[in-house]
Amino acid sequence: MKDLETSRRLNRCRQKLKGWMRTDEEMSETDKAYLESLPKQNPYGLLAMVLGGVSFTFGPAYGFIPVLSLVFCMLTYRTFDKEKEDNPWPFYIGFGLSVIGLVLYFSGYTHDLIV
Question: Per-residue pLDDT tens for 23-51?
C-alpha cells in the first residue's frame, strides 16, 4: 500500500516536471541558435576542479593524489579556448586545491574533514 502511494507521488512529480521543462521540439530555431552561441564550460576544467577537491580532501593522507591532480591541471589548461569556453576558473580552483592538498601532505597536517 505504501509503495503504491509513493509511486503515485513520484508520477505526479514527474508530470509537474514535464510541464516546467521545455524539450528541443518546443524550442524555436532562434532559441536553439542562441543557446549554441553561448560559451560552454570546458569539461577538462570541471574534471580538474573535481580532482582538486579530491586532492584537498584526501591529499593530506595520500600524497600522490595532489601530484596527479597538479599534473592533470597543468596538462589540460592548454585545452582552454577563450572563444568557445566561458572561463578558466575551474582550472584555477582545481590547481589551488591541489596545491593546498600537497602543502598539507608535506607539512604533515591532516584536517578533520574526513574522520
Answer: 666 777 887 788 788 777 778 888 999 99
C-alpha cell recorded at residue 99: 596545491
**Could you give the CA distance from residue 22 to residue 109 in angstroms, rounded to a whole number?**
49
Cα maximum dimension of the chain:
57
Closest-CA residue to 67 (of 111, 114, 104): 104
d(CA 79, CA 93): 16
DSSP secondary structure, 52-115, as one string: HHHHHHHTTT-THHHHHHHHHHHHHGGG--TTTBS-SHHHHHHHHHHHHHHHHHHHT---SS--
Is residue 16 classed exposed, middle or buried when 0-12, 13-18 and 19+ CB atoms within 10 A define those classes? exposed
For residue 46, the tally of other CB atoms under 10 A from its CB is 13
Q: How many CB atoms lie within 10 A of CB 110?
A: 12
How is residue 109 written as a grid cell? Answer: 597536517
